[in-house]
Amino acid sequence: MSSKNALNRPLFRSWSIARRLTLLYAGSSVLMLVLATTYLYWSLVENLTREDNAFLANEIQECRRLLNQNTNNEDLLAYEIHIEPAASKFIKYYVRLLDDRGRILLETPRMADVVAVSSFPAAIATTEIPMRGTFWKSGAGDWYLLMSARAEVNIEGRAPRTLHVALDVSMDEALIASYRRTLLVVVALGILFSCAAGFFVARKGLQPLKEITKATDSISASQLHERIAAKAWPEELASLARSFDQMLDRLENSFSRLSQFSADLAHELRTPINNLRGEAGVALSQARTPEEYRRTLESSLEEYARLSRLIDNLLFLARADGPITSIARTACDARKAIEVVREFYQALAEDRGVEVICGGEATLEADPVLFRQVISNLLSNALNCTARGGKVSISVQRQDDRTVEISVSDTGCGIPAEHLGKIFERFYRVGQARSQQPNASGLGLAIVKSIMALHGGTVSVQSELGKGSTFTLKFASAGVSAAARR
Hints:
- It is built from 14 helices and 12 strands.
- The protein is of the alpha+beta class.
- The strands form 3 sheets. Strands 2-1-5-4-3 form a 5-stranded antiparallel β-sheet.
- A hairpin with a 3-residue loop joins strand 11 (458-464) and strand 12.
- The longest helix is centred in the first third of the chain and has 53 residues, at 17-69.
- The protein is rod-shaped and about 160 Å long.
């Protein structure tokens, strides 16, 4: 199994980050330590072996030179083989000279007791330069480096001789063994130190993470105003702190909106319920005629209808905000659907002395029922905000970017600039709207925004006090929307 697969195993993935960092740090440190000690060990062995081989090769070359010069070098040859090896105090080596039949002609004293003739490897040719010897271990446990070679004799009729050279390398082997034990101790201590250092580094490096965790744990629903990014965090955690603060901003905004929504909902429910209780209390305070009871029940039905509309609108908004809400889109003639809504409100417009005009044509992909509800909500608001003699215009235009833009404009009182960013929130009503539409719930524009979101479109508003407002809807055209769904 590869190391990558090992790191992806469930056991490793369940480990703490500190344990993972400790393991990775210790593993990498130990790997480098093992590679370094292995190289040092190999370098020592290689250098010692090269020097020993060079010594034996030089000895063979010297003996070859003496044998190949002339017959007057017998004393020098005897000195080279008999006396010099025995006189060496720091290097123990032995030299042997054999004839062509394998008989010993000369050898260093006691060499026969140390290394027999049969222990040597085959001799190389006279023209070859010896490079590497053969390691051999004696019965006594001593190590020797053996080398043999043929040597020419500068006497006519004489066959080449054989040279055997043996070097005692027991001290080298002892040095290598001691060095090997030292390296093993160093590696063992290095493993322990790497684990300890890795654990310390991991704990120290993760300390800011513990601090940021502690800071986030202290934040509750009543402390959403607190922020943690102000502290000087490490670069890797600074982005996390900023993201967490952004999440707190969203949570604080959501909690604030939820609190406001709850207060507004309580207010909207309290008004009709108080009306119902008041009317019922008045009706029961004394005996009434059937006609009076009938008027009380009719008034109660109006309040029930208001409550029902409020609940239906809230249910629609809840479903529209759901992650899996889908709508049935079809090709819709925008002008035709708008005319249907205009005819529905025509009587109200005439009663209030407001002119409603429509213009433009386009086909778009939309849910026909929801599209008519959007136009109905905007037209109803426009009629309520426009004074007698005013005008409401609904225009349909196909844009160059293959979208359909529908604008609903009125010549009403307009909306103050400070309210424009909030009018699409649930239950939000501008001060004038509260007085002009006491029975409105403040959900109409929120429903418009939700329906546009379901269609993948947008809604925007422009307004000027005293001159009126323009709400703009942007839909994808029929061809574009169908292609996007495919």
